[in-house]
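QA checklist item 7 of 12: single-chain prediction sanity check.
[x] sequence parsed
[x] length recorded as 557
[x] structure emitted
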Amino acid sequence: MSKQLQKILMCIQQASLYDIRVFDQVLNLTITAALIHATPTWNCLIRAYSRSPTPITAILIYNHFIKGRLFLPDKYTYPAMLKACWRAGLLSKGKEAHAHVTKMGLDSDVYVGNALIQLYGSTGQVADACKLFDGMPQRNVASWNTLLGVYNDNSGSWVEVLVLFKRMTCEGVGGDYISMVIVLSASGKIGEGNFGKLVHGYVIKAGIEPALSLSNALLSLYTKCGEMDAAQGLFDEMAVMKDVVSYTILFNGYVDMGSVNSARGIFDQVRVKDLVSWNSMIHAYVKAKHPKQALDLFRKMEDEKVKPDETTMVSVLAACASLADLQYGRLIHWFMLRNNLRQDIFVGTALVDMYAKCGSMQEAMLTFYKMDSRDVFTWTAAIDGLANHGHPDKALSMFSEMERQGIKPNEATFVSILMACSRSGLVQEGCLLFKRMVEAYQIQPKIEHLGCLLDMLSRAGLLQQAEDFIKLMPPGEKIIANKTLLSACINHLEGKLGEKIANGLIELNSQSHATHILLSNFYALAGQWAEVAKMRRVMKETDTRKEPGISSVDIKT
């Protein structure tokens, strides 16, 4: 091998996968050194470019020299060439290379065959990938892993991963840790925790080296299947063999299960916390409705000199909104301005929502109109704020303006605007909006929409129409609907219909304290004191108690 070729190959080996400039320099050196006939050189270059951010360059190199007959491809050329094709998403070029492979008689090579399976599987041609696999004269573990990976990457084929793995074991092929990682990933996606446990047993029995990626895959499986005891046990067994991924998997598992205290325990174990870790923990507190803890953690984050980003501020503003703490919310807004934090559309929407929920619609609307761009969530936050603050006309006007600007309302938008109509007695407008939601926007009504419409009819005294509407509702939602209607009957002194609804609630066997109290109040209004005594006795026997309410007072000093 010439000195120039040795230098070129050394440059390629030492270059970073993402250092395109080095590859380009090597390409120029190859040409100027007159090594255009050295197949190993071009194989190295094609392989390097196939793994780089510009895989199409590998295809261009191959095309140029294959057409000029400047070098003869071999079995080492095509795995890299086919990889470049699937990474660039060029199936047609991959098929051309497949034709060249067949013509040169290289299709029986196991490594070329594996690359072809990857090409077709990665471009959505799963059936073709499977056909190639079945037609291979010989296979290695990588062949099985390639097809397992193809199935795992296609959402409709996760079960096929488990089927293929069973076939693999039946044919006496021992899987490696890569096989196990793929099978465990598929098991987690379809919630097959029991199958995953069998795989875990197989790993131990087969003596497969417990690599970090395999341990993390097992950890991910257990957390996705809600097996947090098994996940914690495995995590503890990993001892020093843990990375940030291990902590993140277990942390997210506890968050998904609602175990925010356990999640905080994992968070505190992480020695070097990056911004993502802080954001995840703050968001977990907000999601679990622990806004005070979220704000306390944000203050601790500041004390440790960790600079927040837009994601941090969205969660912190949501915590302020939950507490209805206007002063703290203003401080956060000022903090963002002072530190020149970018106010993107998500932060802007969070600000609008925070000011609205903290009672300052003036600041909410000022923020809204100052925003450079707004999406459906921004408009919905403003409409919801106006509806909750007794400005139904402004909410309807803003909804119309939103439609004029081409913003398509979503389910939450219609809940807000229907609520505005309900609270202001705009029955006709509300019914028209409900009809438009179903017919014009093809939104399937949910219990929130049905509840708004029922509340609107009940408030307006249209009790017969409300009763007819309840008959159309799903059985599981009728208890809440009937309670709403019974409350309206009490308010409108409608005894006959109220008695009918009360009997219906008793038949539905609703055991909540609110139902018993509502029935007791209705019977008292109707003068049926024996029934009142009965309701009170039932409540005492079942120890039914009303959950105490919470009030807050903001004292200005």
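[x] summary fact logged: The first helix runs from residue 3 to 14.
[ ] second reviewer sign-off
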